Automatic annotation (TrEMBL), chain B:
This is Na+/H+ antiporter MnhB subunit-related protein domain-containing protein. PANTHER family: NA(+)/H(+) ANTIPORTER SUBUNIT B, NA(+)_H(+) ANTIPORTER SUBUNIT B. It comes from Ignisphaera aggregans. The keyword Cell membrane applies. The keyword Transmembrane helix applies. Keywords: Cell membrane, Membrane, Transmembrane, Transmembrane helix. Signal peptide: none annotated. The chain crosses the membrane at residues 16-41, 86-106, 127-145, 151-170, 190-214, 234-260. Pfam families: MnhB (PF04039). Its main location: membrane. InterPro entries: CPA3_antiporter_subunitB (IPR050622), MnhB (IPR007182). The lineage of its organism: Archaea, Thermoproteota, Thermoprotei, Desulfurococcales, Desulfurococcaceae.
């Protein structure tokens, strides 16, 4: 019982720190890389909690579709904010 | 001294302190909730709802309380809570209709061109596309025996086709024969087929064979109608198997249509 | 001659190895905060995806449950996708060209 608790604690802490740093970032291309990293950490948490259907439904969305949409929008508008 | 001037931190100290304190306060709140400090929590043993779900989804001794599928999640989604899934499919249909109406093209003149990325990227993307399509078909067909199902396989195929749009060019997509109108036609045809499979038990009611319900899967009390339940020796839940295959096709075409419309939209831009 | 024989269980070895993986996850996190260019951050995300694929196989071996290790195939196939998007943004004129 020790291993699931330790892995979930470490992954949750890292994802909360990254979520705050995404908000303060001025360069929006680096912010999308942070979002992809948070997605991989969430996949790890779902897997440790023994839910393989949720992992299979979450993986294409968070690693292929979400960065693609943000990069398309950034191409048509500007990259640095303010 | 020059090394220290070059590697400078891009964040102030204030940002890192705020992020760390946010993480520590969230973890403290989680620990307090875990020990029951803020009220009554559900118990840690198997609850009666979970027990009844596990007993009722595969029960070969009592043929009126079972749907012959070993995957409990698929049985709950398509058989016991089938109307919730119908509403969720209609939400996706509303999203596709919204994208089709708002992002209508203002002019049809589209300049051809494009070569895609280099040859290393193209070769590896072709291998990845082939392996993903085979894996998704395995997920769709075995949806009632192993973890997987219809929606997971459909979104994997849709994501792969949008990856092909980025690595190889738009000309490759048109050369295969995938067009925006074709995708919409496929999607609405398969949605009509899902509705037809849901209404099949009504034929038994009309012909006078036995009493039947809409979306009925196996034999219930008071009605003798049932979809096929065994494939030589392996269990094959009737409507769960058919719905998985149809849902794969419709979700794949919906996701590819949305990505294709957003990527090739040309409207007026304000400077 | 007496040889010393050390006997380990499979579960004990796996517990020791899983802590090594958790330490490497923290190191990838330090690299994504500190990298001077944008390509270092992209490499950190890719390395975490490959690491996660092996970690899934280890957990399936530790709990003795072979049916939950199916997402391992897909995350090993799609680990390189973020590189494509970043380079397509910086080099080409249009997505889908």
């Amino acid at each position: 019982m020790l291993i699931p608790i330790v892995v979930v604690l470490v992954a949750s802490t890292l994802s909360i720190i990254l979520a705050y740093l995404t908000m303060v970032e001025k360069d929006l291309l680096i912010a999308t890389i942070y979002i992809a990293f948070i997605g991989v950490l969430y996949t790890l948490i779902y897997y440790i909690l023994m839910a393989p259907d949720v992992v299979l439904a979450y993986m294409p969305v968070s690693s292929i579709l979400l960065p693609l949409m943000i990069v398309i929008v950034l191409k048509k508008t500007k990259r640095f904010e303010e | 001294m020059s090394v220290r001037n070059r590697i400078r931190m891009r964040y102030k100290k204030r940002d890192i302190v705020v992020a760390l304190s946010l993480a520590i306060s969230m973890l403290a709140l989680a620990m307090v909730l875990n020990m029951g400090g803020l009220g009554i929590l559900p118990p840690r043993t198997l609850r009666s709802l979970a027990r009844s779900i596990v007993i009722n989804t595969y029960n070969p001794w009592n043929t009126t309380l079972t749907s012959y599928s070993l995957n409990a999640v698929s049985a709950i989604i398509w058989d016991y809570r089938g109307i919730d899934t119908i509403f969720e499919t209609s939400v996706l249909m509303a999203a596709v209709t919204g994208v089709a109406i708002v992002l209508r093209e203002s002019h049809k003149g589209r300049k051809p061109g494009g070569q895609g990325m280099s040859i290393i990227v193209k070769s590896s993307t072709k291998i990845v596309m082939l392996l993903t399509i085979i894996g998704s078909l395995a997920l769709a067909v075995h949806g009632h025996l192993t973890p997987g199902g219809g929606f997971q396989a459909g979104s994997a195929i849709g994501a792969t086709l949008s990856l092909v749009l980025v690595a190889l060019s738009l000309q490759f997509i048109h050369r295969i024969g995938i067009d925006k109108d074709t995708l919409l036609k496929i999607r609405y045809t398969v949605l009509a087929m899902i509705l037809a499979v849901a209404l099949v038990p009504l034929i038994s009611l009309v012909l006078g064979y036995s009493y039947a319900y809409i979306l009925q899967n196996q034999v219930r009390e008071g009605s003798y109608f049932s979809m096929p339940s065994k494939f030589f020796t392996t269990p094959l839940a009737g409507t769960v198997f058919v719905f998985n295959i149809l849902e794969t096709i419709t979700v794949a075409s919906a996701i590819t249509y949305i990505v294709l419309t957003v990527a090739t939209y040309e409207g007026k831009t304000e400077e | 001659m007496v040889l010393v024989e050390i006997v380990f269980n499979v579960t004990q070895v796996l517990e020791m190895v899983i802590f090594v993986y958790i330490a490497s996850m923290v190191m990838f996190f330090v690299r994504i905060l500190r990298g001077p260019t944008i390509f270092d951050r992209v490499i950190a995300v890719d390395a975490l995806s490959c690491d996660l694929a092996v970690f899934m196989a280890l957990i399936a071996l530790y709990t003795g449950n072979p049916h939950i290790a199916f997402p391992m195939i897909f995350i090993a196939l799609w680990a390189y996708v973020l590189d494509l998007y970043v380079s397509k943004y910086l080099e080409f004129r249009d997505i889908g060209e």
